[in-house]
Specification:
483 residues; alpha+beta; Molybdopterin biosynthesis moea protein, domain 2; 5 domains; three-stranded antiparallel β-sheet; 45% helix; 9% strand; elongated
Length: 483
């Protein structure tokens, strides 16, 4: 029987070895070269070579000198080089490409880019100082991939399994709000995508998801279907993006399809409702005693509802007149000074409820409150107050501090925000404050004729319309009756 001879391509496909590796190790394997024909490898030689333990690429120190010689010759003959956006340079080879970009500091950073079956791998080569070093890493990775040693989990994970992995390994340990946020987002994502392979989710499918979610809207029990806000859909897309980022970090994916999907435009206006002094008096007058205490704590500390519910006596320092908020949304503890009104309130609460671990407990259950939405809404209705949420009391706290002349950094620390940008969302000037601000610009009034007065003919001094034609020097009250 004639011995089977394989070309380089046939040997590469049969044994999953990169052609470059075959050329470099042809003397180790044993080959046949006759005039007029390409290199041929006997199959038994390849099998014996693999059995003897060839399973790793050569070390960089062993191959790099020879590889540099190969690279120099290759550059002259076949290398394709082109300049891309922002001055980046790409060198293309038969087995992939190397990209060089300069950092802001002017340092050269090298990336490799290659494809394995339908998977594209793009990554930075850490520590590479020259293109030759980057090409060597590219060559080694492609050779590994051809042998089945992929830099990612080749058997793609299912979307359901990846979502559960994301919740258990990332969301639960890092986010307090994972139940009300990521878990809800993932339920909507699962409903649309199903248990598809993660690698099958494409940018087009995500665009279809956006259209379907906007069309479906929000449906709550016992309520009419509500329009889904762009901001809500963006939170779901952000969650999907994070799932893919974690899949890449953990070796289950190579590329994030969310990179090619745009987020929806969001309304930059934020809720501006604050409680006026008159509304505060009416609300406290009709509120139940326990609700009145919760409202005052919110108005005088700016604490979130959950922070108030979870406040413990061990976090209240009567000697220093401070409350320490632990396990806050930002993940950091913060201290809030207690004013005289709140200090008296907490003393009374301590005398009444000192045996409990928590400052505020539901008398019916003996446990901390979980929700007061019904009682708060009822109190607002009795007081004739519309469109007020409990969280608006936190807005009111910040707005009143700024109105009283305190700087944003102080407000930021009391509110427990990471940045002043977040704090600014809560600072809402009221109508009278805006009027007072623009009136402060008037100063010493000058006798200037307004533009609309120039077309009016002069009239006698005893005419009642003298205010219209003469130079304006009075206040707003002097002319507000003029039409």
């Amino acid at each position: 029987m004639t011995e089977e001879l394989l070309t380089v391509r046939e040997a590469s496909e049969s044994f999953h070895i990169h052609p470059t590796e075959l050329y470099e190790r042809k003397h180790e394997i044993g080959f046949i070269k006759r005039p007029g024909i390409p290199i041929l490898f006997p199959r038994k030689n390849l099998e014996k070579w693999l059995e003897e333990g060839y399973n790793k690429p050569a070390q960089l120190a062993e191959v790099l000198p020879k590889f540099n010689i190969f690279l120099a010759g290759y550059d002259k003959l076949f290398l394709e080089r082109r300049t891309e956006m922002k001055g980046a340079i790409r060198w293309s080879y038969p087995f992939g490409s190397v990209l060089m970009r300069k950092t802001k500091k002017g340092e050269e950073r090298y990336y490799i880019d290659y494809q394995v079956d339908s998977y594209r791998v793009r990554k930075v080569v850490k520590g590479a100082r020259t293109r030759a070093e980057a090409v060597k890493v590219l060559n080694a990775e492609v050779a590994d991939a051809m042998r089945g040693q992929y830099p990612f989990k080749r058997a793609s994970i299912g979307f359901f399994e990846m979502c559960e992995l994301f919740l258990e390994k990332y969301s639960k340990p890092k986010k307090k709000s994972w139940k009300k946020a990521d878990r809800v987002y993932i339920c909507n994502l699962k409903e649309f995508f199903g248990d598809i392979k993660l690698a099958k989710i494409s940018p087009l499918m995500i665009e279809e998801y956006k259209i379907e979610r906007l069309k479906k809207g929000v449906k709550r029990e016992g309520a009419k279907k509500k329009k889904l806000e762009n901001s809500s859909l963006n939170r779901e897309l952000s969650c999907l993006r994070k799932i893919f980022n974690k899949a890449i970090d953990w070796g289950y994916a190579v590329e994030n399809p969310m990179k090619k999907v745009d987020f929806l435009p969001e309304d930059e206006s934020y809720r501006k409702r604050v409680l006026t002094e008159d509304e505060e008096l009416r609300l406290l007058e009709v509120a139940e005693p326990y609700l009145k205490s919760l409202i005052l704590v919110a108005l005088y500390t700016g604490m979130r509802k959950g922070e108030i519910f979870n406040l413990k006596w061990q976090d209240v320092d009567f000697e220093e007149s401070e409350i320490t908020v632990t396990k806050s949304k930002s993940g950091k503890d913060r201290c809030i000074s207690i004013n005289s009104v709140l200090l008296n309130l907490l003393y009374a609460q301590k005398a009444q409820n000192g045996e409990s671990e928590y400052v505020f407990t539901n008398p019916k259950t003996g446990k901390p409150y979980t929700d007061i939405k019904r009682s708060f809404t009822s109190a607002c209705e009795k007081a004739g107050i519309e469109d007020l949420h409990f969280h608006d009391l936190r807005h009111t706290f910040a707005s009143r501090l700024v109105r009283n002349g305190f700087d944003l950094n102080t407000v930021k620390e009391l509110m427990g925000h990471y940045s002043i940008t977040t704090t600014q969302r809560y600072l809402h000037s009221q109508a009278e404050e805006k009027m007072r601000a623009v009136e402060s610009l008037v100063g010493q009034k000058k006798k200037n004729v307004l533009q609309w007065q120039k077309s009016v003919k002069p009239v006698a001094d005893d005419d009642e319309s003298d205010l219209v034609t003469s130079s304006f020097s009075g206040s707003y009250d002097d002319v507000k009756g003029v039409h």
